[in-house]
Amino acid sequence: MDLDSLRTYVQVAELASFTRAAERLGLTRARVSAVVQQLEATLGTRLLQRTTRTVRITPDGEAFLERAQALLAEADDLQSLFSRQPAALRGRIRADVPLQLGARLVLPRLPEFLAAHPLLEVDLGSTDRRVDLVHDGFDCVLRVGVLQESGLVARPVGQMAQANLASPAYLASHGHPRHLDDLRSGRHRLVRYSSRLAGWPALWEYVENGEPRSFVMPAAVTVNNTLAYEAACRAGLGMIQAPVLGHREALARGELVEVLPQWRPAPLPITLLYAHRRQVPRRLQVFMDWLAGVVAEALSADQRPLEDR
Fold first, then answer.
1. Which 3-state string (H, E, C) describes the chain?
2. CB neighbours of residue 82 within 10 Å
3. CA 213 to chain centroid
4. Are strands 120-126 and 91-97 parallel, antiparallel or unpaired?
5. Which strands sit side by side in the sheet containing 120-126, from one edge to the other?
6. Which one, of 179, 195, 104, 92, lies nearest residue 145 by Cα?
7. SS3 assignment for 90-131
8. Model confidence at 309, in pLDDT bands (50, 70, 90)?
9. Which of 145, 247, 232 has the alpha carbon at shortest distance from 189?
10. How confident is the model over 281-298, as pLDDT tens digits?
11. pLDDT band at 261 (very low <50, low <70, confident <90, very high)
């Protein structure tokens, strides 16, 4: 039994797919299947139940997976045991971050991380879709918003302030709202955000007496990603409620205008998620520390108030 066999099995078990594991490892599906079969023969037990459509892990496979993950993590750390310099870290990190944070914050700072750790490789997914960390094979994900129940470890990073934004073209056409009653008059529109373009109503969210509240508003346009959300606002299709982070320059240039600053929505929590393991690989711990620091630094710098408009 060698480490490559363990890595192959762990990939198949975590992805529940021989095909996807083969793609991830750069091997043929037949080779991956043969490695797992040989491992099962060596152990004298079945680790995976295979059908024509699914791959399911057995109870013995679950127990073996946990030990294999811990052993691989320890092996990664052992490789750099006698060289504690950052440059000694090696391997691949797979992370996913929200689209706007990835483009505007993480990717511009990533060269400094890779310069400090030249033997590391980073696969950075950037999407507004809520990926499945285990099924999609990520080591960690950065999540914005209230978390759903999960079996993952959650590391709070900070709170992202939000603002109510509109374009000058929209305000010229619909007027500048001064109170919540102006929004209830029927003259105003939101751009509705829905990752699946589902049909639930558009909500104006705000905080009153420390409690989050909301009410339904009309929306002529629905979008499913943050880039389109901002573009629709700039085009005058409606108001949006979006993080201040990333929009401050547009506000300073007058391309966007904050409205009803006294009725902002609640801040959005930012959280790092990663899988439960007895020992987190050192390369992953170092990357998560760096990523959390980058985000926290940006949030700290973004605390100054917006100009009243």
1. CCHHHHHHHHHHHHHCCHHHHHHHHCCCHHHHHHHHHHHHHHHCCCCEEECCCCEEECHHHHHHHHHHHHHHHHHHHHHCCCCCCHHHCCEEEEEEECHHHHHHHHHHHHHHHHHHCCCEEEEEEECCCCCCCCCCCCCEEEEECCCCCCCCEEEEEEEECEEEEECHHHHHHHCCCCCHHHHCCCCCCEEEECCCCCCCCEEEEEEECCEEEEEEECCCEEECCHHHHHHHHHCCCCEEEEECCCCHHHHHCCCCEECCHHHCCCCEEEEEEECCCCCCCHHHHHHHHHHHHHHHHHHHHCCCCCCCC
2. 7
3. 26
4. parallel
5. 120-126, 91-97, 140-144, 268-274, 153-160
6. 195
7. CEEEEEEECHHHHHHHHHHHHHHHHHHCCCEEEEEEECCCCC
8. very low
9. 232
10. 888 999 999 999 999 998
11. very high
Residue 200 confidence class, pLDDT cut points 50, 70, 90: confident
CA dist., res. 186 & res. 174, Å (int): 10
Six token digits for residue 164? 């109510």
Q: What is the pLDDT of residues 47-85, one digit of tens each?
A: 999 887 788 999 999 899 888 877 877 776 666 555 555
pLDDT band at 131 (very low <50, low <70, confident <90, very high): confident
Vertex 114 angle, CA 111 and 119, to 5°: 155
| Residue linked to tokens 């009309």 | 218
Contact predicate 152/133, CB 8 Å: yes
- The residue assigned the tokens 């902002």 is 264
Structure tokens, 7: 């890595």
Euclidean distance between CA atoms 244 and 160, whole angstroms: 8
